[in-house]
Amino acid sequence: MEFYEIALEIFCALLGVIGILGSVLPILPGPPISYVGMLILYIWGIDTQDDLTRTVMITWLIVAIAVVVLDYIVPSYFTKVTGGSKTAAKASTVGMIIGILFFPPAGMIIGAFLGALVAEMFIEGKELKHSLKAALGSFLGFLFGTGLKLIASGVMMYYIIAAAI
Q1: What's the angle, vertex CA 133, arms to CA 26 and CA 81, rounded to 5?
Q2: Alpha carbon of 154 to those of 90, 150, 163: distances in Å?
Q3: For the chain, what are the domain ranges?
Q4: Could you tell me the mean pLDDT of each successive run of 10 residues in the chain, 165 residues long?
């Protein structure tokens, strides 16, 4: 195996790792980054014929797009299902971003919860009980979306490693 092949495989593995990190960090689009790592290996075709077929690549492109779209829809949906307002859903996202900036990584989860709670109580004027329910919905939506991204990026990392070995 030549140097450039090894360097390319290492680069693709790094993209896979960044994709997994991006599944948790809101500033990086995790699954698309992982997919790019797979795509580079597929295009160069370095010992990937058995692992990365055209069908696998198309399937994971669809999965990556779907997961990114769902990541924007799911938290709002969970917030609405638990009785939260659009304001709470938006404030949850703002709280998550503020939380990750000041108290990573736990701040992201706490920020999403507090953002929805504060929005429901102070902007929408809801009672604590109702606000807690909406905040919990926002939190569960965030966990569900993050879980989907982690699973997708993790499986794509598996394909990257399998193709590189």
Answers
A1: 75
A2: 28, 6, 14
A3: 3-164
A4: 88 96 86 96 76 92 94 81 84 84 81 89 90 87 90 96 86
